[in-house]
Structure formats: C-alpha cells, structure tokens
Amino acid sequence: MASPSPSSSCADVPWVLAAVCLAGLAMPLSFTGPAVVLPLLREALGGSPVGLHWATNAFMLSFGAALMAAGALADNVGRRRVFLGGLLLAVASGAALACAPNLLVFNLLRGVQGLAAAAALAGGSAALAQVVQGTARTRAFGWLGASFGAGLAFGPLAEGLLGDSLGWRAVVLLPGLVSVSAFAIGAWRMPASRSIAATRLDGAGTLAFTLALGLLTLGVLQAPAHGWGTAQVVVPLAGAALAALLFVRTEARLLRQGGQPMLDMTLFRYPRFVGVQLLAAAPAYGFVVLLVLLPIRFIGLEGRSSWEAGQLMLLLSGPILLMPGIAARLVGRWSAAAVCAAGLVLCAAGLLWLGRCGPATGVRGYAGPLLAIGLGVGLPWGLMDGLAVSVVPRERAGMAAGIFNTVRVAGEGIALALVGAGLGALLADQLGHAFPGAGPAAAQAAQRLATGDLAQALALLPGATRADLLHAYALAFGRLTQVLAGVTLATAGVVFLFLRTPDLHGAEGQLAAGQG
Fold this sequence. Notes:
Layout lengths: L11 H25 L1 H8 L3 H29 L1 H20 L4 H29 L2 H33 L1 H22 L13 H24 L4 H26 L14 H31 L4 H12 L1 H13 L4 H19 L8 H28 L6 H38 L5 H11 L3 H7 L5 H34 L7 H9 L1
Helix pairs in contact: 1-3, 1-5, 1-6, 1-7, 3-4, 3-5, 3-8, 3-15, 4-5, 4-7, 6-7, 6-11, 6-12, 6-14, 6-19, 8-9, 8-15, 10-11, 10-13, 10-14, 10-15, 10-18, 11-14, 12-14, 12-19, 13-14, 13-18, 14-15, 14-19, 15-16, 15-18, 16-17
C-alpha cells in the first residue's frame, strides 16, 4: 500500500477505510428504506401521492444538491470535522424520523438526512484520499464502491424483514445505527486534515445550484397531479431554468476573477470527462429507479411477502458486488469505452425483458431480466469512480470527483421524479382507456397505483377488479421500460463515442493496476 499522508500513520489507514465504508453502507440503506416500507408509511402517516414520492425524493434532492458544497466545506473547515458532523446529523435525523407525527415532517427530516449523508460522504471520501495514494487509492475507493453495492444488494431484504417484524420505525433507524459505528471508528482513528489552498465557500453558486435542482424536481413531481401546462409545474420549471443560468454565470465570473468556483466549466473541454458525466447518470434510468419502483410493485400491488420481494431485489442488485473485479479484468483486454457500452446494452436488454413480466410472474420468471440488468449496470459501475478522477489532469481530480458524484446523485433524484411522473401518466392513459366513464377518477387512481395503494385505487374506480388494475399497471410498466431501455441504449452509444477518445491521463492503466 502506498505511503499515507504525513499527518497520518500506516496504522490509521484500515481504520479510516472502515469508517468511510460504514458511512458508505449507510447511504443506500437511507435511500432504499422508505421505498421498501412505503405501504407501512402510508398507513401510519397518510399523505397524498405527491407527498409519498417526496419520502424518497427529498433525500436524493438534498443529498445531490449539497454534495459539492459539502466537499468544499470539508476542504475549508476540515475533512474529519465534516465527516463526523455529518454522521452525528445522520444519527439525529434517523431518530427524529422514527418520531415523525405526519408525512410532511417525515419528508422535511428526509431532506435533513440527505444533507447529513452528503457531509459524511464528502468528508469521508476526502479524508480517505489523503491517507492513501497511487494504486492503493484506487483499491480503497473500490472498497467504498463495494460498500455501496452491499447496501444496495442486501439493504432491501434486511429492511423488508425489519419492517415486517418491527415496523417502519426500525427501518428508518437502521442507517443511524450503522452511522454510530462509523462515527466511533472515525472519532478514534481518523486524522484531521484540510486544504491549505482552500478559499471561502462559493455561497452564491451553492444557493443557485440548490435552487435549480430543487425547483426542477418540484415541477416534475407535481406534473402528474396538475398537468404539465399548469402554473404549479411551469413556474417551478421556469425558476429552475433561471437559477441554472444564474449558477453558470456566477461560476464563470468567479473563475475569471481568479476565485475557486464550485464548478470549473473548463473541465468540460475534455471529451472523456463529459463521457464520464453521462456514464454517471446512466444507472439512474436503468437501475436506480427500479430500486424504488419494484418494491412498491412487488409488495404494495402484487402482494408478495417482504422475504420474496427481498430475494427479487437481491437478483437485481447482487451483481453490483461481483462485477467491479470482472470489469477491471476486461479493461485489461478491451477499452473502458467498450466495456461500459456493452454493460449498458445488456442493461437495456434486461429492461425490455422485465417489461414483459406480468403480475403472475414468479421468482424464476423475474430472475433472467433482473440479473441481466444487474450484470449490465455492474460493468460500468465498477469503473466509473476510477474513471472520474483519471480523465482529467491530476491537479483537478478532486473537483472532477465532486462533479461526478453530484451528477450521479442529482441525476438519480431527477430520474426518480421524471420516471415517477412518467409512470403516473402512463397509468392514467391505461386506466382512461380501460374505464372511459371514470373521468378524473382514473387519473387519481393512477397516482394511487403508482405509490402501491391498490385499495384506494379500487375505491376510486367502482366496478374495477384487482386483476383489471394489475393488468393496467403491467401494460404501463412495460411501456415505461421501453422508454428506459431507449434512454440507456442512447447513453451507451454516446458514452462509447466520448470515452474512446485518446486516454491522455492513463485512466485505463490505473484502473487495471488498482483493481486487478
């Protein structure tokens, strides 16, 4: 292993790695938990379909919006301090979530939980990068990626069993319990460090970026209930466009003045860097949205047990644990562009296959498409983090990693909002054709179905049967997977074109050496 930074000892390295990996494990647990127990949340806290969507999206929104700012804050005030502060906030917000009296308070606390996760991940990643260098750093971040994969693979199964036996409160407390362990190790062995070259936080850029992302997500979330042409949707989307323009102008001006912008636009001159950003967003549409949609379908609509739903989700996310090593070996024979594109093509095929599965499909019937999606996404998943810091000059690796993580997380939040809205619209169309006399009730029933509330959807459509609604859902879901497969295929083609440009910074050699 490469020598650690002067401020740390070799003995610190495994402990720092353990603390950061535990924090990384807590993040997917925080993300997937409410989706797994959404029917229980609805029964306990009530709320509208839009409000229930925010139970997931509030976390992703604040996490993605705050990640780059948290990284800059860690450089300014200290990586250990931000890491530990984020973990403390994660523990406190998890405890508060378990005591939430209604869905509004729950969603606000989910936003706080996202801020905590951003601080813990940004501070922990920066601290880890300080104690390991060279190929050891690639291996260390590979372990961090494996921790995310473990949370995605086994989290839904564990959370489903917890929800069945102890209720939804146990599920929202679980990430906090993991964070306690990370905090104890980090407080004990993580060395303090900060950037002596860091300037003051880019407050204007941070505010503009957060506003743009928040307003965009809000507008998309409200579209199914109100319509795309209404003020409830147009005003937030217009505000998002203005905030995005303000962000670009603020960052450009700060760069011209010699300051340290939140986002250095000149990085987009590197084609491979642009390709990596597109690659970061690809799993959102082919994989991450399924982590929310499928538990709702399996448990809320099809009536499967948490154990059976957990087995199905493990088929989807389990390959994430296995594929990074395989991807690194493949890069030794083929280019990263070819490996990533091939994985996305396999994922798209799996999505089309999944769209053909009906309500009566058993575990064996789902196994093929879910494994195809997981294996396909796993190939680029194992290469993305290494590529993110290797496709730009070394002195800009820190900012490149921050941009990559922000694009990945923000893209997931936006994807969840768009796909949720799209599924609601497709369901409304199917129910409108199946029940032509239902009128507005069909649209309302569609929103209830999208959140797994089959009983309320049946109440809104007198004369409808459970089989009718499940058939309509299967048709709408099939059309949705066709769209997601098209987006994934298009991304595969563009990523291949951008990543196959000359490798000026030795990215693929580093990947093979660090993960092989």
